[in-house]
Specification:
homotetramer, alpha/beta, Rossmann fold, Dihydrodipicolinate Reductase, domain 2, seven-stranded mixed β-sheet, six-stranded parallel β-sheet, 11 helices
């Protein structure tokens, strides 16, 4: 038996990756793909790489049609637009994975401060599981709506959560330095992401203002069960895909890098998509995969925990399908290996 | 004594390269830089790499001011806009190098067919030297207005002209296959030139319709003194700068690759910016320089002549300064080595 | 029922792609992976991206062990070394896809001239099907040994063969201009393929001497049923994977680009991995896929046929698995979509 | 009057950049270029981009010849090899800029611990000025030998030194996270820096073990006049040139990002090659220049100081010529703007 699926907001890079995974998924049947684009475009018009995989028009978003025709929705809409649609979908029995940030933060005031908009479906905040199966698998299995994590938060939280949970590191003074490929910026034409601006260039951006900072801090706080204020600095580097995250943390008394390594290995030993390695972590090893690779080092009085993911897969579309598999009762790794 | 200069249309990539060269030129004094951009921007606002080099506001284009304050204008405006301005400037005694295509073709009908606009200053066509000093040095020295060549034509004509002139190759069946870095597309935000579209990607474009085709054919015809219809196919490759051109030509009876090599060496022996080499031609050897590197090979019954330039330097700003130097009586290589 | 597999020469880039595909193949069981590397390395030591996918040591090549333990061999050895091993394997009942050039040419003298070595298994030349299923599907199904095509030949022959077969183009004066990503050069440390040499660089290489020239000419000759001497010029461009091929051909009298397009569409209408498109052909649309995209244009008196493949997939490992599927009776597209 | 120059170890990437700058320098006359390469190679054989700029053979290193024929030596030899040669040159009256690490650390034991070799000229340690003119201009002017700084240290020390000197930040808990283009690894063929390994890839390396860590700590300690133990983590990113450094520091009581910005502006106001900016710092703005761009931000309870240089210019060859200019009495910026 297959699950009938709608992808709303199907023209961007994460939707493209999602469609590629769904094309390989034996139980996913794509019924509807929507876009605000004008004209009678099909999926292969906006994603020519998918010619021959899907023969489906892009349609305007219509909540009623979706509620009557599909079982599952992947919402790839921008924040605010997404919650506005998702809210009305939830009343109709469909299940939803939301790629936007709308349901990740549990505090309405924090959301509205960082995103600068009124939340269109704020009542739901706090009751939506965060779609990181490594932390919230049971909750995801039961959920009708899951908040797909941000890309930077995925890479940072997978590195930090076990160490915080096991009380191996201090909740104070956690520094997360991350670099991302350009696809993280999305597909819109933007002068700053033209080839000749982004190629052969590195820059930091959003220092102190990036919206993934409160998301990282919130989930670190949850697992640590005490307040974590994580300092987060993202950078843009000239590659298509991949995030490399370098976390500087303070070990608690007597804790060595070996202890931290052992704890990571132990906690993630049953996880198919987290690899705790003792060779160099490199983004090329996780490119086009749903893996997160982790390693830990001693440096002076700090531990340095490094993490690599593909921002479009484990940081977006792969995680979404992992959540989909859990929510629908399929094997968690279906179409992801 | 210095020459007072205006750069009109100063925000693009070729203007940026031009400004970098002018900053090193001992006799060039930049007085005016114009832009259609709104706001009170300065050069370093749009070209932060030039912070500390120029302290000049970007102003709106005003022909009267330019005529009264400068001796020399580099016009980096788009076609049609450029001729419209250049025409009025010419009446005022300033000298001009025009980066646009407006004065390169000598036949008004050909211009209007390929560019799809009415020419604003068509009477001047045919009397403006083509700014390739290797072919038209004497004419450039005497001129008040010079048509700076297109990037692809520069790379192709420097490869083909001596062989046509010396009657070593047939005027029939010349195929020019060229690949260019992305900066050739200019600085405008365009979905097709976003990093994630252009990186890790090659495509052909404008097959049979690229406007540089008639420009190449025209100047090949001039030097050959008989009609040359060159078949031209450009491609986009993932790099910032550089053009690599592969010309497939038919040698006349008894002409070998060695003969062609000797002819190229001979004709270009006094040229500072053309190197006829017997090691591999590679765009990295000419990147950020005003050089054109050439080599020639035998392959079956064809000669293959390859050529590399930096599209922004020898294919635009460097050639413009080379022309400027000739028009103002400076040493031709000033600021270009 | 699964097929037991050995991959010999498992450390290079094509072997890496092959292993990734085999990991997804429901009927492929990897039993042996060999390497000349010293030490007790495993697959994941040389391909850390495959950590968690395979838990297999790299062993020294031993023909007897392979003959007794596996059903199918993928040989990723270099030319000459490959035929030397394959020859002895063939006597043992295993089936083989050979990635090397050893069995592609049918004329021993041509092989020995272009490859500069004595052929270790020359008697077999001429009886081994060329592993391009679009041309030789029936022969491949019956074969115990298949010669996997070269990457450039795949892209060129898929573009040219139908037009030659249907007598739409002349067998004379075919020019094949191709550009390849750097992975085509293999994984060996080589100064010319260091990042800082290959990045931001384009060059032609092997003009008139590249070994894929006789391979292209031979199969064009077969389908045309008259002699084709194809002029081939490869180039290196700064990307990881992908080949873009631009073929300049002469249409026979009265044949237009539309005719050629219709013929390509017609011949390939049942093929899952060849897409004849009327949008721009770009290597990014075929990256990481087994597709070949084709389009055709008119330019002056020529047709220009363009073709894009992923050199590591359709140009190597994907084609090999396509052949494997045919030789073992699996669905041809298994693990390839 | 010109200065006669020898470049020893002339084949690498920093030597290439040095030669390009020297070609533009009106007072530098290159007399000797040495290499351990076999054969009768010339400069343009190993650096084809310099064809036409220099017509000089590469010779074997001969100390006596150098002492008798040149006034100034740039040593681009590896560590240990460099000091071994430089020591003998110093007795002959020539002046030297040493690109290697041999004279940067003042403590012999620290040198021998981090570099793992015996120092061939250890007596000189501690009396050789560190070639960062922004800190040691007067000492450099008087010196016969200058230790050209490491690339990462240049970017980090220029960011940190003024803040430490003015006591605006704590000497404790300074974290320096840096990313570098691949040219920092030098020109030797190395599997890890092949295009297909380094492209589309980010990794951290040398965590806790990189030799630039003690160099950064030493000069921070000098300017702070108290012990600074800097935690340093370098990363490799897919670009040719450029270093982006992100420093996480603790402001002293009451010190804001604005205070730090003002201090940086103040201290560097007379410096031609340091730009303290209030637009985003990006490596592309300093590529191919001798500039270091700096900016400072508040983030939680930290200041984040970011810095960008071209590792081959301000981080190597440009700094070397800046030192050369000072040591020979030329204008400090000659050939560097």
């Amino acid at each position: 038996m297959t699950t009938r699926i709608a992808v709303i907001g199907a023209t961007g890079y994460t939707a493209f990756e999602l469609l590629k995974i769904l094309a390989r998924h034996p139980s996913a049947e794509l019924i509807i793909a929507t876009s605000r684009q004008d004209g009678n475009l099909s999926i292969q018009d906006v994603h020519p790489a998918l010619a021959g995989c899907f023969d489906l028009p892009l349609t305007q978003l219509d909540v009623e049609t979706i509620r009557s025709e599909v079982d599952f929705v992947f919402s790839c809409l921008p924040h605010a637009a997404s919650a506005s649609t998702v809210g009305s979908l939830m009343n109709g029995g469909v299940k939803v994975v939301d790629f936007s940030a709308d349901y990740r933060l549990i505090d309405l005031a924090v959301y509205e401060k960082w995103y600068g908009v009124e939340h269109p479906d704020g009542d739901r905040l706090g009751s939506v599981p965060y779609g990181l199966p490594e932390l919230y698998r049971d909750e995801i299995r039961q959920a009708n709506l899951v908040a797909n994590p941000g890309c930077y938060p995925t890479s940072a939280i997978l590195a930090l959560a076990p160490l915080l949970k096991e009380k191996l590191i201090s909740t104070n003074d956690i520094i997360v330095n991350a670099v991302s490929g350009v696809s993280g910026a999305g597909r819109n034409a933007n002068p700053a992401f033209q080839y000749c601006e982004a190629n052969e260039n590195v820059k930091a951006y959003g220092i102190g203002t990036h919206r993934h900072a409160p998301e990282i801090s919130q989930y670190c706080t949850f697992v640590a069960e005490e307040n974590c204020e994580v300092l987060f600095t993202p950078h843009l580097v000239p590659m298509h895909r991949g995030i490399f995250t370098t976390c500087y943390v303070r070990p608690n008394d007597g804790i060595s890098a070996n202890d931290a390594f052992a704890a990571l290995r132990d906690i993630y030993c049953g996880e198919q998509f987290v690899r705790v390695v003792n060779h160099p972590v490199e983004t090329k090893n996780v490119a086009n995969t749903n893996y997160c690779d982790l390693a830990v080092f001693q440096n002076n009085d700090r531990l340095v925990v490094v993490s690599a993911i593909d921002n479009l897969i484990k940081g977006a579309a792969g995680a979404a399908v992992q959540n989909f598999n859990l929510m629908c009762g399929y094997d968690e790794a279906t179409a992801l290996l």
